[in-house]
Design brief:
Layout (H helix, E strand, L loop, with lengths): L19 H41 L4 H14 L4 H10 L34 H16 L3 E8 L2 E8 L3 H6 L2 E2 L5 H8 L3 E3 L10 H9 L4 E8 L5 E9 L8 H23 L1 H15 L2
Antiparallel strand pairs: 1-2, 1-6, 2-3, 4-5, 5-6
């Protein structure tokens, strides 16, 4: 006669204890993933800033890296520009003995209009405000609960704004320079890209796929932010909890309009506010000679 299977017993013969270690293990794995994300982000960010420091040291004959970093930080804070963005501009902007681009030699234009964007601050020259508004506009159109904005700098995409995404995700994708993401594909082909199901799409490498899935994203959509020449200078992406059937023509048109509008604003910002910061940096450095 068969007997019902008995539950496993503990060493003292009592009922089995819940697996107390499982929660601790999961917590430790999550902690290590966040730590790894932090390290990866710092590893990718440091070379660009160090390169800019070297350029400034050679250009202005500065005595130490600390002097060049102080110049970068002061100009970054004064003009509300992220340090990494300013460092990228130092490296890529042509320079002359009179400065990179003197404000007196440039035609001044107001920022382009941004209809449809809800900007909380009154200052429409503030990049952070504009990009936050752009991200929420894209998320509103696509009905997404998560999303991020990246800027094209130094030949790769750097994340500058995000909403609803886990720390592991934002650290892992802080810098994207490989083609195995939807945002990179959208930048390369200069068009919107929809990934209807992250779990099965062949665009991702396996590490990227798993990070996205762990963030709770099963689908994503990337919108290039393009300048007047149609060149992507940024990317806005929405992330969705469930696989996507796709978007309507009206949604895609609204997203394209947003990408054009924000891309032109970013182009204006680079050619106005960022150049003002470079001009200020040059004036400060030469005054210290």
């Amino acid at each position: 006669m068969s007997q019902d299977p008995q539950p496993p017993s503990t060493a003292d013969g009592g009922a089995p204890e819940p697996d107390a270690n499982s929660a601790a293990v999961r917590g430790e794995i999550a902690r290590l993933r966040e730590q790894n994300a932090d390290l990866q982000e710092r590893l990718h960010a440091r070379p660009a800033i160090s390169l800019a420091q070297g350029v400034l040291m050679e250009r202005y004959r500065l005595p130490a890296p600390e002097s060049s970093f102080t110049l970068l930080r002061e100009a970054s804070q004064r003009f509300n520009i992220r340090l990494h963005t300013l460092a990228d501009a130092v490296v890529r902007t042509p320079h002359s003995p009179d400065g990179p681009a003197r404000a007196t030699d440039r035609v001044r234009t107001p920022p382009p209009p941004l209809p449809g964007l809800r900007i909380s601050g009154a200052d429409r020259t503030h990049q952070g405000e504009v990009l936050s508004a752009a991200l929420h506009r894209v998320m509103d159109i696509t009905g997404a609960g998560m999303g991020n904005v990246q800027l094209a700098e130094g030949g790769r995409l750097r994340m500058v704004r995000h909403s609803g995404l886990a720390r592991e995700f934002t650290g892992f994708f802080a810098f994207v320079d490989s083609p195995t993401t939807s945002c990179a594909q959208a930048a390369e082909h200069r068009r919107q890209v929809t990934v209807r199901d992250v779990a099965t799409a062949d665009v991702f490498d396996e590490d990227s796929r798993q990070v996205i899935l762990r963030a709770g994203s099963r689908a994503c959509h990337s919108v290039p932010l393009v300048n007047r020449a149609g060149v992507p200078i940024g990317m806005a992406s929405s992330h969705h909890e469930r696989p996507l059937p796709g978007f309507t023509r009206a949604q895609l048109q609204a997203l394209e309009t947003t990408g054009l509008m924000v891309g032109r604003w970013l182009s204006w910002h680079r050619n106005t506010v960022v150049l003002d910061a470079l001009d200020h940096l040059h004036t400060t450095a030469t005054a210290e000679d």
